[in-house]
Structure prediction request, 581 residues.
Amino acid sequence: MRHFRTLLAHELRSAALSWNTWAAAGLFLALMGGIHFFALVDAARAPAPRSPVDSTLWFFWLPLLCVLPLLTMRTFAEERRSGTLAALLTTPASPAAVVWAKFLAVWIVWALFWLAFAAFPFLAAQRLDGANARALGEASALWGGLCFIAVSGLLHVAVGILCSCVTRSAALAALLAFISLLALTAAGGALETLPIESWEWLGWLREPAAHLRTFGHLQDFTDGVLDARPLVLYGTGTLLCLGLAVLTVEGQE
Amino acid sequence: MNEAAPLPEAAVVAERLTKRYGSLTAVEDLSFSVAPGEIVGFLGPNGAGKSTTMRILAGTMSGTSGRASIWGVSVALDPAGAKRHLAYMPENNPLPEDLRVEEYLTLRARLKDVAPDRVAERVRRVMEDCDLTRRASGRLIGQLSKGFRQRVGIADALLAEPRVVILDEPTIGLDPHQILGIRELIRSLRGKMAVLISSHILHEVEQVCDKVVIINRGRLVAQGRTEDLRRELLPEAAFTVVTRADEATLLAACRAAEPAAAVVAAASADGWNTFRVTLPVGSPARETLAGALIGAGLALREIAEERFGLEDIFLAATRRAPGEGRRS
Prediction:
């Protein structure tokens, strides 16, 4: 456990000093700031079924696909390429400690990005009077959405870490993470649009499709609906990905 | 040093180690040991399996079969336990470019279980020992010269005062001054740590090591003290003789002293001829050759016995078939 804490502190420090993190933060805030700005403009023009905060959160997939791979791509791929991972594994620190430290560091950075985004709706609310500020959306929806990001982020970051473990190229790791996260995010919606009911042989897909509704999970969180199934899905998915990542690191020769 | 514990017979044991990559056998049936406090040179041509063996011993690679142990702890069964006694510097000495030397060594000390209240002291000590304090401590590793990077690697290896240090080509790419410094540093470890060191600079190994292990094509071809290997692999005595006599006259004079003597012409200049005279091992003529040649009336300018170095031993060992005539 001592090694895990040492490694986590090192990873967080490295992330704070890395240009890569700051570039990703800039891209993230520019993306989310832009989306939120246009959501506010739309809301000012005409009444919309969703509040600006809801509309902005609905675009969570954009930074997920464009920014998160930038954070995870170098975690293992770069260390494998330079050989520093092998040097790290000559110490008594276990591969599991290394994987969990890198995972948690990226997850914390990802969560901090989203906390920084939360400043936008608050700043907008401060500039408006009471009634208009209420039209921006409930604060609970924002916090619910951020909880969804935090919970689903566990799996998303774990997928990115696993992708970085399987290659020595950071660019390839980013591409793999992009494809995997796209598949994970779109899978539920894609499966739901298939005419599964009419295809008997595809009937077994009905259950997984019901579980993989990423946008449905977001809706539940922003509405304040607490459902254990997404928690189990993201939790077990995270453990599976990190377990595979540990095996991959252990098996690297 | 680590906690007091009874000394094992061997600090490093490789027992019938084998590593296969598909149909390619990188290391086969390799057995050797390193005693506590001993410095052992690990030699072999390129591709002989040195780095593979070292990586198996360091626990960064698993062997296909066989047993490896560090300070009595099995590398396969208790990798974390074995790593507590071991420091390993890989061949290309990979270091993070974006850390300062002191930060890097502090991190490594923590990962190597150095007691928290001793981390700063150990980092300062190894930086002094490796001459890093003055010119490198506050610099980014990415800005360091090759020589300083090697020093950082060795400082890292010595941080936790391990029982066993494995250094894969620690002097590669260094200039003669730097090599001298590293050599002195390694020499200072004698008696304190068991050191297994691979190098292509055989002169360095001969200067520093108590014993050598030579492998070829993944198999052990020789191991032992340099003197013992010299007697085993190069049994003949050889002399350089510079004389005005021709080859036939010299051969006749040598054969009078030792019937099995052989003469090979080497060079000729200004009427002086240089020959190489070889005598079988244990020949009494080894002591009396000079007298015999003078007694035969030969005009002699020089007669000198050749000293076979580790290079000759290495060449002789790697020429013979793997597995033939191993020493233990």
Summary: The longest helix of chain B spans residues 146-158. The domain at 235-307 of chain B is CATH 3.30.70.260 (Alpha-Beta Plaits). Chain B has a mean pLDDT of 85.
